[in-house]
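Researcher: Going back to the complex we discussed earlier. I've cleaned up the inputs and rechecked each line, so this should be the final set. Can you rerun the prediction on the complete assembly and write out the structure?
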Amino acid sequence: MDSPTGARPIIALRGVSKTYWRDTIEVPVLAQLDLDVADGEFLALMGPSGSGKSTILNLVSGIDSPTAGRVVVAGVDLGSLDQAALAAFRARHVGFIFQSYNLIPVLTAFQNVELPLLLTGLDRRQRKQHVLDVLGIVGLHGRSEHYPRQLSGGQEQRVAIARAIVSDPSLLVADEPTGDLDAASATEILDLLGRLNREFGKTVVMVTHDPRAAERAHRVLHLDKGVLVESVRRDRP
Amino acid sequence: MRLPIQYNLRNLVVRRTMTLMTAGGIALVVAVLVLTLALAHGFSATLVATGRADNAIVLRSGSDSEMMSGLTREAARVIAADPAVARGADGEPLALSEMVVLVNLVRRGNPTASSNVSVRGVDSRVLELRPDIALREGRLFRSGMDEVVVGRNLGRRFEGCALGEKLRMGGRDWTVVGTFDAGGSGFDSEIWGDAEAFLPAFDRSVWSSLTLRLKDPGALPALQARLEADPRLHATARIEQEYYRAQSRQLAAVIRALGLFLVVVMAAGAIFGALNTMYAAVGSRSREIATLLALGFPPRAILASFMVESVLLCLVGGVLGCLLALPVHGMSTGTTNWASFSEVAFEFRLTPGILATGLLASVFLGLVGGWFPARAAARRPVSEALRAG
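Model: Rerun complete. Updated structure for the full complex:
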């Protein structure tokens, strides 16, 4: 399935299959999937539980590998990388946004956001500047010394987004980013993701069950039992 | 590429109950280790401090201790005249003929308990040959009188050994006229009196040993050669300090071995405690670990982080253990020296080296206890751990 814009794809999946084993039972999740995602695209993946949405997210972010087929992201064939190289790839190219935020509870907002920068060559002063910049972008400049338990759900997710963008990755993968939020907070987060896509050119691949969230995307792919069954393109807002 | 140390420190603080329980177990192990080493070191140090490096002790050939030795008056006179022996201001050889016997004394405050104590017959030159020893109270015994002086450790440990008290030995009553301070050496556990008075009282006709001041400690081999060459003497000489050091080896080794056995058994339990704590830490932070791996931290950074946390946890226990052991420093105790069959009083001696050994042991426990949980954390597949979280 080609990218809608004709732009250079940042993600290319070719003949990708994924099968899990639960004890001796074979559970096919994806079957012969082809998918291109253009650089700068905002893509939403929808479908019932077990349809393979999160598996696609895991494959393109390099935290899982396909049973068959090729996954190429940012020009890198992920199948050619060992675990250490995959870790370096994720640090360089991928920003993660999780449904439950996945912040480290014993670290402050500042320290959580700083984590990805510890994998770079930046010195302490440069890291501090980057962290304060992105906390400003997500509207949490005054909350840098707060621990996650001292923040609301929406604020926690904004910290998580700050952590995802602080090292300036080209790809943001978001797994149900509004799943744990109330409607108002969800709207704020979706606004923020849209802004990151529009103003900062981030490619966003988002798994969601929420049709209102999917409306923010340029393209919505529906999966069922590991197969793409529908693709809806939207005009860029 | 390291995770910040605050991550580990704050996790230890957040789980403070489990941290303190595990650290407490490690603290007990370290305290026992430190106390054992302090006990063995105190015992060794007491006997090593006994004697001087420029004194030689002469025993009968084949004797390992004064208790088994015997030198005739004639042999002692010949040996004292050896050219290797220094002379005093009066021109006489600095030589001390000594007689050592054991007496069984009742412990102070416990009439049913008793222990062997070394009784040493000396003469008035004793303080000249052992200038490190000083009278602390009273005076020295007088020649030919039924008087004794006692080491500083004995007065509070045995009945009849305090200043002015009378001791029943060899069928006679001996008045304690003074106490002496031998600087924490083995002499502090001895009773000294006039050798010429002791010989008939204890029914002895020969000396136990002869102590000589050497002009030069390097002259010992020549002295030894002359002793071996003279068929009248049947004697052997060695440096006094080395003689007492050798006397401490067997018991110090046993103290260390028994103590270390206890430590190893306790350490096994403590390692399981650390393993349990760290496995619980890994289990409860499964999602955090997966998140860190997803962010790009390599597995070795996760491994290192959990190892650091385990070592920090055990180091807290190590510091607590050392603090627990500290109050016993200087506390005195006593045991029977297997080489002389007599009681030696000594002090627990904590040294920086012993404390460092205790801390190193806690680090070792942390490394062993942390390795398997840390490896499990680092090896967990990211996608699986994220789902489990």
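Model: Worth noting: Strands of chain A lie at 9-22, 25-38, 42-46, 68-73, 76-77, 94-97, 171-175, 203-207, 219-224, 227-233.
Researcher: Good, that matches what I expected from the previous run.
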